[in-house]
Backbone:
């Protein structure tokens, strides 16, 4: 985190993207923050503002039976990669985000319940 709590629109943070020596800082800012509430899904819109990766990601979380449904979509542009390779970048991003989401879900205890308010 590069901004103090509470988390919300305007929060900035830096993720480390890559593996081993092929990694880089991936700065982002939360530009929309709508936590879930009774009867409606929650939504977070991130803008990627790095020198390597630019674009946005939208994460929506809503009820689905006894659990939750997460929809993660986005648009990425990688510096130095021509638009011709857009489909390769998109497929790679889908695989990466899928692994990240699966890892986060594995780490959450099943009975954790909602996160405490900040």
Residues:
């Amino acid at each position: 985190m590069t901004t103090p709590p509470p988390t919300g629109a305007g929060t900035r943070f830096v993720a480390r993207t890559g593996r081993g020596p092929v990694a880089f800082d991936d700065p982002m800012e939360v530009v929309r923050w709508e936590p879930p509430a009774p009867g409606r899904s929650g939504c977070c819109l991130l803008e990627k503002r790095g020198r390597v990766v630019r674009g946005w990601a939208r994460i929506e979380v809503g009820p689905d039976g006894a659990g939750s449904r997460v929809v993660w979509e986005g648009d990425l542009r990688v510096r130095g990669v021509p638009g011709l390779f857009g489909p390769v970048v998109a497929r790679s991003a889908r695989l990466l985000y899928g692994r990240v989401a699966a890892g986060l879900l594995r780490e959450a205890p099943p009975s954790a319940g909602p996160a405490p308010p900040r």
Notes: The chain has a mean pLDDT of 82. Helices lie at 86-107.
